[in-house]
Amino acid sequence: MLKLSRSVDELVAEAEETVISLTPTEVLDRLDEPGLLLIDLRDIRELKRDGRIPGSVHVPRGMLEFWIDPTSPYYKKQFDNAQSLILYCNKGSRSALAAQSLQRMGLETVAHMTGGMSRWESEIGRIEPLPEKKPGA
Fold first, then answer.
1. Backbone angles phi, psi at 49, to 5 degrees
2. Average pLDDT per run of 10 along the chain, which is 137 residues long?
3. Residue 41 and residue 98: Cα distance in Å, rounded?
4. pTM of whole model > 0.85?
5. How high is the pLDDT of residue 131?
């Protein structure tokens, strides 16, 4: 068995202490803000299975730092006009760690949604299916 000095729960708790955490209701209240991107970090299989928050943008957790950095060869133009980000995942752990990572990159206008998609679904309930990919896209 691998020897770890800190558990993933401890890492998430540390991240929660340093990042802005929003409830689903607080996220809903901010969705119309100019320049706000709501980022879904979940695996594509989760999106296909469970749908997504309307208007959210899928960014796989493993690519977030690469897609957001304009100096990266993987940079995505969808971030050109972004002024702030709210991240979410399924339960809130991956988004807390991801928000902390973006803060370490110098991004000050990032938050994450506590409880993730599961909490959004139970408290807000507004979900849309993942749009079908167009052939050749």
1. -75, -45
2. 93 95 97 96 95 95 97 96 97 97 97 97 92 66
3. 9
4. yes
5. 77
Instruction: Read off the CATH number of the domain in which 95 is found.
Output: 3.40.250.10
Nearest-angstrom CA–CA distance, 129 and 53? 9
Q: What domain count does the chain have?
A: 1
Assess contact for 110 and 35: CB atoms under 8 A: no
In sign, the C-alpha dihedral spanning 52, 56, 58, 59 is negative
pLDDT at position 114 is 97
Q: Which domain range does residue 34 map to? A: 12-123
Residues 6+ apart with CB under 8 A from 118: 90, 91
